[in-house]
Design goal:
The structure is a homotetramer of 272-residue chains.
Chain A (H helix, E strand, L loop, with lengths): L1 H13 L5 H24 L2 H6 L1 H25 L3 H6 L1 H8 L2 H5 L20 H4 L3 H16 L1 H26 L8 H12 L12 H17 L1 H21 L29
Chain lengths: 272, 272, 272, 272
């Protein structure tokens, strides 16, 4: 019976955000995650790494052990341990402690600790940032509605880039940096996305002419994904305003951050 | 009579996608195309090319002969051979086998085998990706509706780029990399599309000032094609929702992937 | 009287586009302009210039003399010579022949012959491309309606770029390529417009951090001019469709390239 | 009593823009600010700085002393000196004279004089550019309405860039310029914003493949902030036109720069 109560209390603290202890735990956890990610990042800077070798090593293992214990406790006090372990947060929690252990055998693996950043997504739950989730949902919904258009668009880009890349390989050749078709395709992607590193550039007049065509093409088609997302978003925002009705006068068209109805002044329900 | 039946059966397998054999043939064909393109791409990588010379040579000719036979059979079993030969797919089918033969005389021609990528467009027919075709059609229709605006826009860019290029040639001159007006125009295109390789850059104060004006201009006018496409797309999406009516309650405004009417719950017709 | 008739006939040929002779003259003129611009462009390529020195020199002067005669005849046969001379086309016509004469004293001036490109705008008048002018007008109207928003936006960019440039000059200093505040402002413009030549790049950690902020800022505010133009264009396109009514059934909402009314099938008036 | 009048008169001249003296003072002030900023900018150019050392030094101190006196007088003649000192303009006025004094101890501080540029914002008050303020307000309102979407978007970019940066550090390593995770994150920002300096570029096939994914991702998500701002702006512009009603016939839908009602021709109120 007492163990049952302990599990329930731990569950409230670790999974819950209603009690002061639950909130405090989650906020402490987020700070711990951010600090541990920061340590991994600065550990990669040579002169800091060599100077504070001991301290950084100690901190990394401290956090890894803390997070390992936390994972074990989560499994212990969860009502459905297997369901938690297979959930998004459960997998991220596991993936964010594994790299430290794998680093015993594969030193580079250590830097995958950065996966811990995903755990910070909990901040949305803790700080009751439901409004932000609503906004994120709207963005995701727009992208989902546009997924087929984006797929068709990406397919066209892949075919275009392959053709242009092969053409440039034939025109410019290895002596001007276009050493193979994969490299030429990489150059075409760098160009069509307007990144333009300049590590590989066309030298011949024909190559420069073709490159100009690719750039203007890229310039024109950058409009397509923007147009797709914007058009979907405009519909979503319009629908949002349409559904956000006042309970008193039933009129719609309020902004999503309206507190009072702009027609009758009645208090608005906050949309979730 | 028997030959008539053979042609009809071949036609069903090669051109049709209704029978299991027809689907199987088309899917096998798509894999063969992707593999043959992949071989051409890796054949251009020096160290792979020299190591697997024999194997790659064998594969390329295997696919070329297979595709040549396929083309001949298509001509044989088609009901209107000439109509097929002059259709989009007919021309692409021919163009995708020619480079291998031309490569006897002109080795570089081999890389044009990448034209085979266009044959993959058949995937839309096989996998009944009509919805995707619908999306592609909407994108194409938006671009077509906006074609005159885009033409006016491109003409303005060409004039602008010629004037700016000539000005920079006069200001910077050959000693700073602007070796001729064509090169300067190439630089202006690289700059106005915000690609910015950095292989040619202005060195004088006057040149840098003019370059700044070109960049801000480019930054401002990148908005124009985006605006054109977006505005047309918004109209297209709006029309799409307007035309997609429920057969039961006649109400419109359904999403293009809706399965049931959101007002009365009746099964929706899938839009083609 | 005879001179009066000569002037009138010349006027019809040179200024008019109604008679076959008038159209023929304008089309020949456009070809002459394009060829003369092409000659100036290839004249700037060293190895072509030195090989065909005599031919190019002859062609340039041939066109200059032809265009000078044309300008004189225009002045002679125009009903209001002064009004023509002060009009947009009159000024462009003059400016496009001056550089050749100025080149006697200032050889570089020759390349300003490219101003002739503006004369090609006549093509709109000749080919009755009124629809294109309509589209161009819509684009211009959108930009005009948005002019105050664009001005506020450009002012903000200028202030932002000056502040960021000065900060980077203090942080990075002349030893990393940021030799003066004007150069640093140039770098900030190159960065905020996402051109990114890479001729000047931050080397210190602080400089790279500030540069990252500038880039993300640029990434976010690139949305603003696009948003402005798109929103105005959407309103313009909406109004366009609203005004394009069928004369038979009075219904609106037709596409700008509709030939028949989509409701009653009556022939539509073509909008100008 | 006389001192009271002096303070009131000074207040009218310095703070007011109604009297000719008040307008004259503000316009003179704006010119003085622009000149003093220009002096700081050209003072950073080595060869100008060394040649006109004395003159530039004199001018800088002249303006600093003038602005210091102006600040003192503002404090003296303001009705609520503390309220002024804590207002936006009060703080900017102070910050724009401090750098010159701090430069005694910290020579680099001098360049922060560029903060004076913010003082030029007064131009909006002087020239009665209320319309421009209205446009600026609309832009700000759109950005404010979209602030949560933009926050969610920026958070996603930060997480994405950290993950991609760490991956590239592991793949490419210090020998190809990816010397640490912070540097790799800087590279990821340079790439995802399509700036693409080219000072650090991937060399391995795996690195180039990952870089290609980052670029296409950046290309796709550049659409998101644009879409957000555009959709909000479109709503704002629509509302603007909806609220701008004619006082005579009550009809709405007028452009923001309309002087007469387009339906009944009555004079419109100018919107503030």
């Amino acid at each position: 019976m007492s163990q049952q109560r302990l599990r329930q209390q731990l569950n409230e603290i670790i999974f819950g955000t209603e009690t002061p202890a639950g909130r405090g735990f989650d906020i402490a956890l987020i700070y711990a995650i951010l600090i541990s990610v920061f340590i991994v990042i600065i550990d990669s800077v040579e002169h800091i790494s060599s100077e504070f070798k001991g301290l950084l090593f100690f901190c990394e293992w401290l956090f890894t052990i803390l997070f390992s214990i936390e994972y074990a406790v989560r499994l212990y006090c969860s009502q459905h341990p297997f369901r938690y372990a297979r959930s998004f947060y459960g997998i991220v929690d596991l993936l964010s402690i594994l790299p430290s252990y794998i680093a015993f055998f594969l030193p580079q693996a250590q830097f995958f600790i950065i996966i811990r950043l995903f755990r910070v997504l909990r901040i949305f739950r803790v700080l009751k940032l439901f409004r932000y989730l609503g906004e994120a949902n709207m963005l995701m919904r727009s992208i989902l509605l546009a997924r087929r258009k984006i797929f068709v668009f990406l397919m066209s880009v892949v075919v275009l880039v392959s053709i242009f890349g092969s053409l440039m390989y034939v025109i410019e050749g290895p002596e001007h940096g276009f050493t193979s078709i994969p490299t030429s395709i990489y150059w075409a992607i760098v160009t069509i996305t307007t990144v333009g590193y300049g590590d590989i550039t066309p030298q011949t007049v024909l190559g420069q002419s073709l490159a100009s065509i690719i750039m203007v093409t890229g310039y024109a088609i950058i409009a397509v994904p923007t147009g797709i997302i914007t058009a979907e978003l405009a519909v979503e925002i319009g629908r949002d305003k349409g559904e956000h009705a006042c309970r008193n006068c039933k009129k719609t068209g309020h902004d999503s951050d309206a507190v009072h109805c702009k027609y009758c002044g009645a208090k608005m329900e906050i949309p979730v």
